[in-house]
Amino acid sequence: MNSAQLAAQWEDQVIATRRYLHQHPELSGHEVNTAAYIVEQLSKYPNLELSRPCPTGVVAVLHGAKPGRTVAARCDIDALPVQEVDDSPYKSVTPGVMHACGHDNHIAMLLTAAKILAANRHELRGTVKVLFQPSEEVGIGALDMIEDGALEGVDAAFGMHVWPELASGRVSLEPGPRMASTDRFRIDIQGKGGHAAAPHLCVDATPAAAFLAVNLQTLVSRSISPASSAVLTIGSLHSGSRWNVTSGSAYLEGTVRCFDEETRKTIREGMKRMADRVAAAHGCTAETTYTWLSDAVINDPAITAVAAGAAAEVLGPDGLASVPPTLVGEDFAVIMHRVPSAFGFFGIRNEAVKAAFPLHTDRCTSDESGLIGGALIFVKTAYNFL
Questions:
Q1: 10 Å Cβ neighbour count for 354?
Q2: For residues 258 and 89, what is the distance between their CA atoms, to the nearest angstrom?
Q3: What is the pLDDT of residue 317?
Q4: How far apart are CA 165 and CA 349, in angstroms?
Q5: pLDDT score at 3
Q6: Spatial CA neighbour of 259 closest among 282, 213, 225
Q7: Facing residues of 374 across strands?
Q8: Taking the CA atoms of the chain, what radius of gyration do you get in angstroms?
Q9: Would you say residue 77 has pLDDT above 90?
Q10: Half-sphere exposure of 199 (CA within 13 A, CB side)
Q11: Is 228 strand, coil or helix?
């Protein structure tokens, strides 16, 4: 496969695909039209076997001209509840919904890669499974796809996430820990409400919640080795309903991110212990709900080497970059627990086209000129592995 020829042939299509998808984002679990668009596009290639392993997911299977192993290529397809402020001709037409995490880029690259592979089936040995996964943003899509058989027979898997901090035309494909485990917690504190003028007749939940919010941070600073990375963030704290009423209940919600299971376990157990004791010290009770969403993304060295070699073929040796591990989470980790896998950070930053805003923001966009490179990395990784 000649990368230069393929780039010239497919560049306009990958950009047009990304713009259509950017205009029509759908939230997690509601990717009905997105999935239908993917199916409609891939139905033009009769050698692709299409299936719907969960309501809004799509799997396309391509058998090469010769027998061999099976590799999976995966992207996520859901958007976020963010109102876009950019005024581009292809801005989101869905109020309050936007591809603020760049999944439109992921779909466009992998959809184009699937078409390229299908058009060049005669050069392929083995089988490629192309996974278009819903509900990544809520951490359940990968597991849903797996439970419906998406990974059956797969020997290795590969995926990428666009990265606004990395220059367009470069990619990070490095072994070992890359993204953190992602957990969610909620702590409900129960006291006894009453009149604000008679606190002695109440059990005020607000001081307990406030004290807990501050002291939970010591789980990281005093319970975890300084050599380990971990984050505990309280995203919301709610207590009370009126200025002259003592609050009888409160709750905190947040997330925990880390790279190893021992740290994860230490924080979870310490959180429950601290919540119970702080609540009791204030005359309240606490109920802690801790949900394990996805594990850490840890790249398999052998599969990563294949992907990095493929990227160097497509982008040139200067296209490989180094990006530090991040405490952002990604449910591709669920796939990694089943098969050897690699996950890359694909650069989309270019200030000249205003592609310089972080993920999950209302102005997040990409340098579209580099997306064909991402599509070809998917193609070459599959081809080289097989």
A1: 12
A2: 39
A3: 87
A4: 6
A5: 87
A6: 225
A7: none
A8: 23
A9: yes
A10: 8
A11: coil
Q: Strands of 66-76's sheet, edge to edge?
A: 48-51, 58-63, 125-133, 66-76, 156-167, 341-349, 171-172
Nearest to 300 by CA among 323, 332, 263: 332
The neighbour count for residue 225, using CB atoms within 10 Å, is 11
Q: Which amino acid is at 154?
A: V
Instruction: Please compute the mean of the pLDDT values over residues 366-386 and round it to a whole number.
Output: 98
| Among the ranges given (138-142, 338-342, 380-384), the one the predictor scored with the smallest mean pLDDT | 138-142
How far apart CA 65 and CA 45 sit, in angstroms, is: 15
The pLDDT tens digits for 289-307 are 999 988 999 999 999 999 9
Interaxial angle between packed helices 32-42 and 103-119, expressed in degrees from 0 to 180 and rounded to the nearest 10? 20
Q: How far apart are CA 335 and CA 150, in angstroms?
A: 10
**Helix or strand (DSSP H, E) at 385:** helix 371-385
Q: CA angle, corner 129, sides to 124 and 133, nearest 5?
A: 145
178 has a pLDDT exceeding 90: yes
